[in-house]
Amino acid sequence: QVQLVESGGGLVQAGGSLRLSCAASGRTVVNYNIGWFRQAPGKEREFVAAIRRTGLSTNYADSVKGRFTISKDNAKNTVFLQMNSLSPEDTDVYLCAAGPSGWDSSTNYRAYVFWGQGTQVTVSS
């Protein structure tokens, strides 16, 4: 079993950047596909980005493609989400999640087993 803790959220102006971190413990991240999701109050959880356990494949939502980059550092057991050109529409709680398999379903939150608590991202105009 793996435990996940997100960090790096905060308040930023439109057009700015943030770098989120998802620190894992208990198990190495090489055993899991890692996904980033975001969720606003009263709305369904939305896929943002995912990285395969091998690190060789990534997926991005169309809304963030070209602006966000997911990566990982196996030595630090941490997955990152670099967010550039932020807009107010990106305001949400961002959560990372781990799944042992199911890369073909990596955009679906139901494919993930372990979840962090989330970190708030607020983009002002």
Mind explaining what this structure looks like?
- With 125 residues, this protein is an all-beta fold.
- A hairpin with a 6-residue loop joins strand 4 and strand 5.
- The chain is built from no helices and 11 strands.
- The N and C termini lie far apart (40 Å).
- 30% of the residues are buried.
- Strands 2, 4, 5, 6, 9, 10 and 11 form a 7-stranded mixed sheet that branches. A 4-stranded antiparallel sheet has the order 1-3-8-7, with no helix packed on it.
Mean pLDDT: 96
- Which regions contain 5 or more consecutive residues with pLDDT less than 50? none
Strands, count: 11
Instruction: Report, as a whole number of angstroms, the end-to-end distance.
Output: 40 Å
The total of helices stands at 0
Radius of gyration: 13 Å
Q: Could you tell me the strand content as a percent range?
A: over 45%
- Large-scale geometry: globular
Multimeric status of the protein: single chain
Helix content: under 10%
Largest sheet, described in full?
Answer: 7 strands, mixed
Helix/strand structural class: mainly beta
Order of SSEs, N→C? Answer: EEEEEEEEEEE
Give the SSE layout:
Layout: E1 3-7, E2 10-13, E3 18-25, E4 33-39, E5 46-51, E6 58-60, E7 68-73, E8 78-83, E9 92-99, E10 114-115, E11 119-124
Parallel strand pairs: 2-11
Antiparallel strand pairs: 1-3, 3-8, 4-5, 4-9, 5-6, 7-8, 9-10, 9-11
Question: Could you give a short description of this structure?
Answer:
This protein is mostly beta strands and 125 residues long. The chain contains no helices and eleven strands. Strands 2, 4, 5, 6, 9, 10 and 11 form a seven-stranded mixed sheet that branches.
